[in-house]
Amino acid sequence: MKKIIAIILPILLMTSLFYSCGDDFYTIKPKGQASLETFYTKEGVNALLTGAYAVIDGGNVRSGSIWASSVTNWVWGSIAADDAYKGSSFGDQATINPIEGFFADADNGYVTNHWRALYDGVVRCNDVMLVLPDVEGMTDEEKTLAAAQARFLRAHLYFELTKVHYKVPWIDENTENPTVVPNDHVVWPEIEADLTFAKDNLPSRWAGEPGRATEWAAKTMLAQVYMFQSKFPEAKTLLNDVVTNGGFELMESYEQNYLAATRNNKESILEIQYAVNDGSDGSYNAGWGDALNFPQGGKIGTCCGFFQPTQNFVNSFKTDENGLPLLDTYNNEMLPWADVWDKDNPEVYTKDFYPGNVDPRLDHTVGRPGVPFLDWGPIDAEQPIRDIQNGGPYHFKKNMFLKADQGSGNTTTGWATGVNNNSYRKYRLAHAMLWLAECAAETDDLPLALNMVNQIRERAKNSNYVKFEDGEEAAYYAVEPYDSFGSKEFALKAVRHEMRMEFGMEGYRFFDLVRWGIADNVLNAYLQKEGQFMGHLSGKKFVSNKHEYWPVPQTQIDLSVDESGASVLEQTPGY
């Protein structure tokens, strides 16, 4: 993948001649001197494939907002859920407010840009498939390998489109007129076909090139696709294979999955590779989709104070005297609300600020007042919040770079100096293990579910704990394994909570709530309680059978018409 990153910029410059910037984001329009014939060589295929890989992070696209299409799904998976507030100030990136409060419509800019950017990626994958049959100088095996990568990337993009917009038109290399393709079904069969081809034809590893699609990444994604359809036996088989035979191991300490120094480690199944200060314009090969999501100014000096943990999310890390989560009661009382740093009484922010037990993963995920923020020192008056009434008192931590790496690990140009080389762990062994636990619980294999969950909890227990400068632990950390899962109902509740602890603010939560069928109850309870002290959430409501998905952009409905002038695309139900 290092080779891929190194040539992304020149490839993007070349393909920018080839892709137009019109409103029809399904089709390819030759422009200037470039045409598909330019790529009918082995080198051309590799160039097109590199261009397809370049958009897997939601950036490097010719259309749309890189924040709307970020691979981390911070808007769609976390802010739309109970994990994160938009943060910053109410008026900044105001088009996110309707997503956070469930009043977005088909003209919302983030809705439109998500669709446009991901279809831009689909076009790039289709280009690879279009040229392959006529390329000279490639063996059949090489063509199959290129097709497997393109189809994996295309499946990823359609999976993301489906999770957000539900029914979308399937446009592939055989489509002659994309504007008349209807969205009359959920494209699960097509996604499954692409991933099945990918898993059967991709290698298990790429020597020296992390970030490329592999057999194990394809199996993990296909299992996730099955789970969204409640095909738990099929998903269980794949995940058991990944966990048992993939050769992956849990890292010794939880936070090692979020440090740049331990990228592409033994737990990683698929990482989206980031690079900074590499000669690209503004370090554009880094995670620009999350450029807004770093502490604003202050002693850290990054931008822009978006994506702040909710009080509900922080509360969910509470544990009892036995180190087990408060599955039903964690949100009955808030952890103390540190609304203003008390400069006259800084000693209040000690280990006893919250005297109860918490899961140690809390302080590897959330920057809390008084608690050390990696090696930057404690969050204090020198690290302000932009608008505490809009974002609360907490910072996000997992995407941050170390102070020791400042200047080498983050971009040194432009306004977004939080952008860094800390890769996004799309799939890691812990994902596969907890998804296997869910499938096991759903198929009444409670011993397997218990085993998977307890391995994750044991790792959390034995991880490095956040400590003050004097060596004292920053909180009363307590996490222990379960003795048993007495019922399927309890097992599912425990597994689902464990996912939130392990994957918190990684863009999964909203989609999980939807596929579990509990989004209505969970999110309305969250909005009702959180709205009591966060004014921008007051009175907001999640509407069942509508807000599980977001609209088809009105611009795309207007563009997709048949010969009679009738609209081909149907709007998502409820909009």
Automatic annotation (TrEMBL):
CC annotations in GO: cell outer membrane
Lineage: superkingdom: Bacteria
Keywords: Cell outer membrane, Membrane, Signal
Domain RagB/SusD positions: 266-575
TM regions (residue ranges): none
UniProt xrefs under InterPro entries: SusD-like_N, SusD_RagB_dom, TPR-like_helical_dom_sf
Protein name: Starch-binding associating with outer membrane
Annotated source species: Sunxiuqinia elliptica
